Amino acid sequence: GNSVTQMEGPVTLSEEAFLTINCTYTATGYPSLFWYVQYPGEGLQLLLKATKADDKGSNKGFEATYRKETTSFHLEKGSVQVSDSAVYFCALFERADKLIFGTGTRLQVFP
Amino acid sequence: DTAVSQTPKYLVTQMGNDKSIKCEQNLGHDTMYWYKQDSKKFLKIMFSYNNKELIINETVPNRFSPKSPDKAHLNLHINSLELGDSAVYFCASSRSGTGGNEQFFGPGTRLTVL
CB–CB of B98/A96 below 8 Å? Predict the structure, then answer.
């Protein structure tokens, strides 16, 4: 079946460092891909999405490119802030409005 | 105005009890979901409803019964609570669509079974 694999966390960075969180997927066809973010004590929020191969989703300085050759959708940000500390979930869209989530990657950014 | 709201925010109860969690969305969406997030943050879908009709039921014990009185509400009733039911439960909603529309999540209900 379809699945999403994320790098294990936590990822610990200093403020203004470059961020990469790896995400790879297994799916039939080319499903839409998402990154959701969960801040402490809150529900998940959509960060960005890409609906087809080579699409780049971007929001709040974060970017991810849908790469069908490597079945990947890695999340990147050029300069992280303390306020970016959260858990990040990669997800793919399956049938009937079902999202398959990865296990989540905790990001901790220190001043 | 809160888009997706859940009550209660915290729920502490004894094993064997029956409890309910309520969810309401004011976004006009036609699809609603329940997710379970365990202590390791792993998030798994439990149910989804589209226009009050059950669409997804992911191998969840019969003790869990969702109820959708209308499109804006999806409640979760749990019978005979067990220790393993302790988790954070999230409600979410979206517009239905073939490409995957954004899901809006509630703030979560932390259930602790003693």
Answer: no
Counting as low any pLDDT under 70, the low residues of chain A are 96-97
For chain A, where are the E strands, in sequence order? 3-6, 11-14, 19-21, 23-26, 33-38, 44-50, 56-59, 62-65, 75-77, 86-93, 99-101, 105-110
Q: Is B60 in the A-facing interface, judged by CB distances under 8 Å? A: no
Cβ contacts of B98 within 8 Å, gap of 6 or more = none
Q: A6: which strand partners? A: A23
- pLDDT given at position A105: 95
Instruction: Tell me how close the Cα of A64 comes to any Cα of chain B, in angstroms.
Output: 16
- Measured between beta carbons, which residues in chain A are less than 8 angstroms from residue B33? 97
Is residue B39 very low, low, confident or very high in pLDDT (cuts 50, 70, 90)?
Answer: confident
One-letter amino acid for residue A93 of the chain: F
Please tell me the distance in Å from A101's CA to the nearest CA on chain B.
Answer: 7
pLDDT at B1 over 80: no
Residue A43 has its nearest CB partner, among B55, B102, B108, at B108
Q: What is the pLDDT of residues B58-94, one digit of tens each?
A: 878 999 999 999 989 999 999 999 999 999 999 999 9
* B106 neighbourhood in chain A, CB within 8 Å: 43
Residue B25: what residue type? Q
Q: Give the β-pairing of B104-105 and A3-6.
A: unpaired
